[in-house]
Amino acid sequence: MKLTNLFALMVGLVLTVNAYAQTPATKPLTIGEQVPDLTYNLHIGDEEENIRLSDFKGKLILLDFWGVDCPTCIQEMPHMLELQEKFKDRIKVILVTQDSKEDIAILWKNLAHSIENAKKYVKAGSRLPFIVSDTTLRTLFRPTTLGEHVWIDGDRLFRALTHPTTTIAANIQDFLDGKKVKLYNVETPHISLSDPLTWLDPKNKLQDHVAFYSLIMHRIEATIGWVPELAIGRDSITKKLTQIRLLNKSAVELYEYAHFKDFVPLYKVLLKVKDPSDFFLNTDDDLKTYQWQENHQYCYALKIPATGNLDACQIMRQDLDRYFHYTSKVEYVKVKCLILKQTTKGTIKPSKSASYSILNKVTPNGLVRVFKKVHIRSLMEHLQSIAAYHDKFIELVDETGYKGKFDAEVPGFEDPEFAKKITVPTLQSALKLYGLGLEEGYRIRKRLVITGN
Predict the structure, then answer these.
(1) 9 alpha carbon, distance to own chain's centre
(2) Distances in Å between the alpha carbon of 401 and those of 338, 364, 404, 440?
(3) Can you tell me the distance from the alpha carbon of 52 to that of 36, in angstroms, rounded to the nearest whole number?
(4) C-alpha dist (Å) from residue 346 to 42, 378, 402, 434
(5) Fewest beta carbons within 10 Å, which of 155, 208, 268, 283?
(6) Are 395 and 445 in contact (CB under 8 A)?
């Protein structure tokens, strides 16, 4: 069961803390600084009590930054409750969110019917204090993502901003005993996509003197707030592409942009390499995906003068080939495809539907995608998405020659596991009813060819 469903019942029982005296002028803290002695209004049911951070003098305070759209944060709540109960009055666990009580109430209303197996989350939510509608603590500690923890010692000194994996009983015991604890502080670099040199050194004062550069970096975590993954710059007069900035992209995505100035489906790429896993990972496992991204995502930035004959994308292609030790070019090659054809010319029947629609229909044999008054390209997009779950590098080619609109019903899917169960023979049987055939074959197609060891 999804964790967000479990949160529905928990919302009605939470112990909440509303912070007041939160001021936008509060300055971010660095490790070792003392946390301001802010006042909070503590709500427990219908009762409330004003408290200050100094009320927790001598205790370890753990702030857990979470959000209503963060299932993993909710999953951690029982663990945080266990720590609170184990160490009793030696620590104080407080859950902090930017979401308002109204946001939480809306979530509760939407998920009110999904409460099975929610007891441990309800228990945690009813016993741990919350700070809602927070702005001050986020400003003070600058967490990079939801789920991170702030450690504040008994003298209100900011000791660490950590990943949740650090918050375990052994570390807390050592901390309370005055022993040295490796808390794996989260780094919070200030990243500016419009000025990529800050990736290297935020204090660099030479940016205005740089006329030309290109750089490649390994994956970096963005600072607070949403950061776009692509930005370009053009000369205001000539419109020449003079700047490219890409954040946290795979090697194949970098190559795609260098050759097409866009990101394209994987079937438009032909890998002639020893280890394709350097370019993509074929898995639905979130943990494996994250681990792969840490080792196989890169940042690229380039700036060239507006004058002269330099070509930004050509330089980018050369940079990538040199760095990854591959060669890349766009050419026409013979590749295996899935080909959609008319079984006999003129067998596709024109649509009799009144209007265009694409809907899902549940039948005893499974989910069906219903197309009414559509062009072939709509069906092609659906079939291509199914094919991609079996082979990301195979292209569906339209050789029907049909230009009109038609109706059809073919197997549909709700998630990848359903899509993987839809085979080519299954599609062939469904398409046959509408005068269409689907077969494997080889065709000459335009591909980005990447070659190397």
Answers:
(1) 27
(2) 15, 33, 9, 18
(3) 10
(4) 74, 19, 9, 11
(5) 208
(6) yes
CB 339 within 8 A of CB 443: yes
pLDDT of 180 reads 85
Cα dihedral sign, 318-446-336-264:
positive
Q: What's the CA gap between 240 and 234, in Å, rounded?
A: 5
| pLDDT tens digits along 106-144 | 655 664 455 555 566 656 777 788 888 888 888 888 888
d(CA 384, CA 378): 10
With a CB cutoff of 8 Å and minimum separation 6, the contacts of 275 are none
Residues 6+ apart with CB under 8 A from 340: 376, 379, 380, 383, 396, 397, 398, 399, 400, 431, 436, 437, 438
Contacts of 104 (CB under 8 A, 6+ apart): 11, 14, 68, 132
CB 214 within 8 A of CB 301: yes
Helix pair 251-260, 312-324: axis angle to 10 deg = 150
d(CA 453, CA 441): 28
CA angle at 174 for the pair 168 and 175, rounded to the nearest 5°: 85
| Calpha distance 371→378 (Å, rounded) | 8
This prediction has a pTM of 0.57
Give 276-298 as a DSSP string: GGGT------HHHHHHHHHHHEE
Segments in the chain below pLDDT 70: 1-26, 41-48, 104-123, 184, 186-192, 195-209, 222-228
